[in-house]
Prior knowledge:
The complex is a heterodimer. Helices cover 0% and strands 52% of the residues of chain A. Chain A contains no helices and eleven strands. Helices cover 0% and strands 56% of the residues of chain B. In chain B, strands 2, 4, 5, 9, 10 and 11 form a six-stranded mixed sheet that branches. Chain B has a five-stranded antiparallel sheet with strand order 1-3-8-7-6, with no helix packed on it. In chain B, a hairpin with a 5-residue loop joins strand 9 (85-92) and strand 10. At the A-B interface, strand 5, strand 9 and strand 10 of A face strand 4, strand 5 and strand 10 of B.
Amino acid sequence: GAVVSQHPSWVICKSGTSVKIECRSLDFQATTMFWYRQFPKQSLMLMATSNEGSKATYEQGVEKDKFLINHASLTLSTLTVTSAHPEDSSFYICSARDSGQLQETQYFGPGTRLLVL
Amino acid sequence: SQQGEEDPQALSIQEGENATMNCSYKTSINNLQWYRQNSGRGLVHLILIRSNEREKHSGRLRVTLDTSKKSSSLLITASRAADTASYFCATAAGYSTLTFGKGTMLLVSP
């Protein structure tokens, strides 16, 4: 089955530092990947849609200069949280669509838990 | 804005009982999907039902969709302790993004 990995699975950093999270589709190509954020006991909120070879599309209220997205290949998208602050602490989840199949199902990664001190 | 709203927010049952979760949404959809999330983990896709379908089965899961009422239900039969998780519905219009509901936390006690 389609597998999506994320790295790292968790990260603790100091306020003001930048953190990069990787999302990889392991056995399929993904033209489109998605980045979500989930706060405790809440639902997933879409942050941005990442398209291979082009700029990401950000949802309203999400700062593109703070959450940098790079989708340089068909199997890798990265999210960089720049100058992280404690309020950025959250669970970040990516998902990917299989470019070779009906684009109805998104395959989700296991998530990255970020704690900013 | 969030589209799906699950009901109830939390559900506690005994093993062997059935669990029913409901989801309502506001706008037209192409399909509706249900996902499961174990605590602190990623999402697992359970089932997808298209707007022209009314009912779908997958193992112990049964999903219904009523587009006239803009609602869906997920039934888990003969629940097990391993079914303990949060369940989310997500709607999609065309091949666009998914919009998730707030989720239902299901606790199945042995």
